[in-house]
Amino acid sequence: MDIIPGSADATGGGTVYYMVRKAAAVSGRDLTNARPSVDQNNLPAVQFTLSGEGARKFGIVTETNIGRRLAIILDNRVTSAPTIQSRITDTGQITGVTRDEVTDLSLILKSGALPATLTYLEERTIGPSLGADSIRSGIQASVVGLLLIVAFMLIYYKLSGVNAIVALLFNLIILIGLMAYIGAVMTLPGIAGFVLTMGIGVDSNVLIFERIKEELEAQHGVRAAINAGFSRVFLTLLDTHISALIAALFLIQFGTGPIRGFAYTLIIGLASNLFTSTFVSKTLFELALGRQQRQTAALSI
């Protein structure tokens, strides 16, 4: 006798073990066909047929073991253990299974009927170096993109560009912190979401700065221009972020693993960017204005 582990589906519980005879009553070579069918009550069943020699052996076994279980073994594991109800020769049915189990069990029986053996001609193993190279290239692209963004903001917006860079760094720190908190793995799609977050962050600051420039050109005060720039652009930022959020939710709903990783990174980046572009950036402007006013007051005294 042998003790063989059984599938959880065989009994409806956890992993179980069966004591079975070492010598099989019939083997896969004795099986000629197996297909989904229905029993006399129109319930799902598996119809199988045996060869002449297999029918003879199976008839003897089933006749002497009515009421006992018959283990169906594939790859040294019991995949099903139906109860023998009557003597079976060349044709039989396996009942008491669901429609999904009927398909799986039919395929298992057909797999066991294949006498072909596998001969190894060549074996190749692909190591993690390819994925590591891709990740390394993605990080390099992110760093280069960040440096170009920093250069552009400093050249075009001068001191205000420093404000945007600090806000962008806060955005990236929050993004990385939240991803580390939830245990997210930095994959290539995740790096793509990371880079896209940098682009969205810069775009938000550009909108705010251009609005502030318009207010200054209209001869408004510096503080009034800053307040108006942030308040009037906020609804635009909220609209664009919600639109991107909806797209990310659809990617999570209908996408596969890598696509979902990109979408999750994008959602976190959208939330952190909306916070940094409105609160952090404005706070930096307020601090700069406050320091300038204190210096002016000191000079006046």
Question: What would the keywords be for this entry?
Answer:
mainly alpha, disordered C terminus
Biggest beta sheet summary: 3 strands, antiparallel
Kindly report the average pLDDT value: 79
Stretches with pLDDT under 50, minimum 5 residues: 297-301
Strand neighbour order, sheet with most strands? 3-4-7
How are helices and strands ordered from N to C?
EEEEHEEEHHHHHH
Q: Terminal Cα separation, in Å?
A: 102 Å
Q: Could you tell me the radius of gyration in angstroms? A: 35 Å
Helix content: 55-70%
Structural class from helices and strands?
Answer: mainly alpha
Q: Based on CA inertia axes, which overall geometry fits?
A: rod-shaped
| Beta strands, count | 7
> β content, as a range?
5-15%
Q: What's the tally of helices?
A: 7
Plain-language structure description:
The strands form three sheets. The chain has a three-stranded antiparallel sheet. It has 301 residues and is mainly alpha-helical. A hairpin with a 4-residue loop joins strand 5 and strand 6. 62% of the residues lie in helices and 11% in strands. Helix 3 runs antiparallel to helix 4. It has seven helices and seven strands.
